[in-house]
Known about the structure:
Helices cover about 40% and strands about 20% of the residues.
Amino acid sequence: MGKIKPFVVVVDDDESVSRAIKRLLRSIGIASETFASGDAFLDVLASLPSYQPDCAILDVQMPGLNGLEVQQRLLGRAIPVIFITAHDDIGVREHALAGGAVAYLRKPFDDELFVRTVRAALDGVPPA
């Protein structure tokens, strides 16, 4: 049997979005940690070898490293990535999905769709 409680990281420079996602994940039994930047998340990932989230939810546009750059640095780590963004640029969407992202959701997103997407990522299946 795997982990009892899945663990997800949320990387978004908008604190209100991070808080809302953390609350939503907690309501369905998923533990999460939030980071205000891709740099902060990657620093923790690099400094703690045992730190292994089951999924990463990344904002596309952030100060410092953007979500696509964070995704690149996660390659080979077997961490499913879900992108969330307020800017729906088809080129960015295609780049994210070509880079292996499980999903690309536009803010504001429907909570039910978000939950289904996260569960699918954790189960290793494409979202419905």
